[in-house]
Amino acid sequence: MDLGPHAAFIWASYGILVAVLAGLIAWLVLDGRMLERRLADFAARGITRRSAAKPSNPQS
Amino acid sequence: MQSVTQRLANPTRFMELSGRLLPWVSGAAALIIGYGLYLSFFVAPPDYQQGETVRIMFIHVPCAWLAMWGYGLIAISAFGLLVFRHPLADVSAKAAAPLGAAFTFLALVTGSLWGRPTWGTYWVWDARLTSVLILFFLYLGLIALRSSIEDETVASKLTAVLALVGIVMLPIIKFSVEWGNTLHQPSSVLKIGGPTIDPSILTPLLVMALGFTVLFIAMHLKAMRNEILRRRVKALQLAEVERVQAGHLAAAE
What we know:
The complex is a heterodimer.
Chain A: H1 7-44, H2 50-53
Chain B: H1 4-8, H2 11-43, H3 57-84, H4 89-119, H5 127-148, H6 152-166, H7 169-179, H8 199-252
């Protein structure tokens, strides 16, 4: 693909876009996994939310 | 009869619904962006004036739109928190801030890289570029203000007030290209009388804009889910500390 004399500017733009979006997505996925692990750790030690412990109560 | 927003006000219900939606929204974003990239590189012709560098527009313009729409979302969420006390409003505002900052950063960088071959310079201190730079600092200010206050309730209210004050930047950015001398071109898509871009270039731009918008929605849903999980972890940490303290008190008696 020949993008002409300014190809470096085009590739740099798309490269930075991919790097930033990939970084954001990776941060969101890894952050979510870490939080789920911590919640699972609490659950394993018997510490749960009241609403999770009493799913039949709609007010909790 | 509950409204949609009332039904979604329950974080547990939001987690269930967003958990089902997220894979579909993410998949749709990937497909649309993939198709948009195909159109951008293999279908769209070079511009008669800008040549191949017009391909930077296919990412720069969607990023710039999302920079503004992201801030609009934060402002609406801030309004929802301060006026309606919607339980998820603050979660939405907090989740959108880093995403909006990232898209504003990308709009600035890709615009700069587009400006060098087109204008002959990476940067000029004109109204459009400067106002978008201020928007970027505003995003950083919202993030910094929230993280500097330990009390979550106080932090959410103060950032909501700042977000509502900062919304004045959106019309300034929108009309900055019409108010003064600038190298930046005026609006050519969202304008009265319709777009002035040739359909061969407009179509890839709109497909990319749709793809980026769906991607933003997917990332915002994921960031909101993470924020809800973070608040649950924090609540459980407090509950654990209280339980330990109660145990120590009982032992002392």
